[in-house]
Amino acid sequence: MPNVMIRRNDDGGLLFYVAKKDMEETIASVETDTPEAWGGEVELTDGSRWYIDPISPPPEFPTTLRFKRAED
Amino acid sequence: MASLTREETQALIQEVLEVYPDKAKKDRAKHLAVNDQSVEQSKKCIISNRKSQPGVMTIRGCAYAGSKGVVWGPIKDMVHISHGPVGCGAYSRAGRRNYYVGHTGVNTFGTMNFTSDFQEKDIVFGGDKKLDKLISEINELFPLVKGMSVQSECPIGLIGDDIEAVSKKKGKELEKPIVPVRCEGFRGVSQSLGHHIANDAIRDWVIGNRDGDNSFETGKYDVAVIGDYNIGGDAWASRILLEEMGLRVVAQWSGDGTLSEMELTPKVKLNLIHCYRSMNYISRFMEEKYGIPWMEYNFFGPTKIAESLRKIAAFFDETIQANAEKVIEKYTAEYEAVIAKYRPRLEGKKVMLYVGGLRPRHVIGAYEDLGMEVVGTGYEFAHNDDYDRTIKEMGDATLLYDDVTGYEFEEFVKKVKPDLIGSGIKEKYIFQKMGVPFRQMHSWDYSGPYHGYDGFAIFARDMDMTVNNPCWKSLQAPWQKPAEGEAEAIAASA
């Protein structure tokens, strides 16, 4: 359950940054991304998948959230 | 000599690895790579930020070096206490040439060494009482001190002293911030963790100090220069460019910086970050808590400076953008003259770099402006995100080496035969004795500044002075040189 900082990059995409692992990846897709809620399963461009319970209302970025590794 | 091809570079790495025992070979192989610009993520080709192998000669430092030497040390109006035995502070004192303005010993303390000088009894009975007394003494002797930081050396963590409690108590008593920093040298694999710990200490003890205090008049062009340690005056050479653009530099982190500048940083509009490795943590924190965007920039060499100035200006309105163009134009004649003078003397020379956190990639542009080519680069303590950024800057099929060992570096140099090496003081004399021109790129070999347009002129001069120095021709003793005409005579008789 790493602490992940989500921020926008210059192109408006979302970056997924795990300080402890020096991991900086772009988010490819988010399961739930509506005006009411944000979260669910998140897939990164490197292919790894992470999970967070959908947050409602959607959080303001940048912010730090706790993610879990998504189970297959 | 033409550059090596991909296969040749790969073969060179294999050849160098050959001497290691199997286990060490396996480990070191992960740290050496041939650059491939098509790779998107560095973790696929190079592993970094791992513990060094026992038995090899590494060039890394410790967490205390990262915190006291790099991040906290240059903050000039605070006293940084090297808490523990006397050596750590004494041997690292003033070596980094972080220039500052002020009267040392009166209102600034940058080049002084304050230590609790641990003795056996302090290890046995604990050093908290000594720290308490020491802080009072410093405050009495130097009443203009704005705050103090307690930089832990190894024994503090080992014996479990509670420096936080002492700091809190004394901070209340003296009404000055006293910051405990848990940067014991044994933490982490290199100085990189020290940077992180120092950033976290700033976050916890400094950044929030003026929340809710609106007496500072903010402007719409306020910026902070982060991660510029003013080595040889670097931050000043950068600052004037930003000010000429019409921006107001509120804070310098941390070269020539003060405590109040740091406390005011959350009120700026944009954080400009030069050394990404050592201060990205605090920039990310400020972005999250105060919504301040941050961007990386590079003030080495005119190409990168112009690029960075335009990128910075794009954050602001048209006046600033127009000013940026004016600044670039103003210095054009100046830097073109520098290039015209030195480029013919340096064209085509090959450079190998092995430095710390940002220079292995940032200075590439400056060398290219002079017509030189960087054929190998590496970091002492970088993480994957640094290599992500490096791969794009480096040419294809060039060498990348992470936490290179003394042996590997020497072998690479013997095979690649660069015309110039840029690395630290520990490597300097080995390579000079091998007859290879060398610049000490940690503190600019006692020269500088190298940032900004003014710095570029000095950079070009220094590189020329080193590469084209006549001394390199005199390294071989006269009687060991083939006599004149002898080589031809042998060739003729054969």
Automatic annotation (TrEMBL), chain B:
InterPro entries: Nase/OxRdtase_comp1 (IPR000510), Nase_comp1_asu (IPR010143), Nase_comp1_CS (IPR000318), Nase_Mo-Fe_asu (IPR005972). GO terms for molecular function: ATP binding; iron-sulfur cluster binding; metal ion binding; nitrogenase activity. Keywords: ATP-binding, Iron, Iron-sulfur, Metal-binding, Molybdenum, Nitrogen fixation, Nucleotide-binding, Oxidoreductase. It catalyses: N2 + 8 reduced [2Fe-2S]-[ferredoxin] + 16 ATP + 16 H2O = H2 + 8 oxidized [2Fe-2S]-[ferredoxin] + 2 NH4(+) + 16 ADP + 16 phosphate + 6 H(+). PANTHER family: NITROGENASE MOLYBDENUM-IRON PROTEIN ALPHA CHAIN (PTHR43457). This molybdenum-iron protein is part of the nitrogenase complex that catalyzes the key enzymatic reactions in nitrogen fixation. This is Nitrogenase protein alpha chain. It comes from Imhoffiella purpurea. The lineage of its organism: Bacteria, Pseudomonadati, Pseudomonadota, Gammaproteobacteria, Chromatiales.
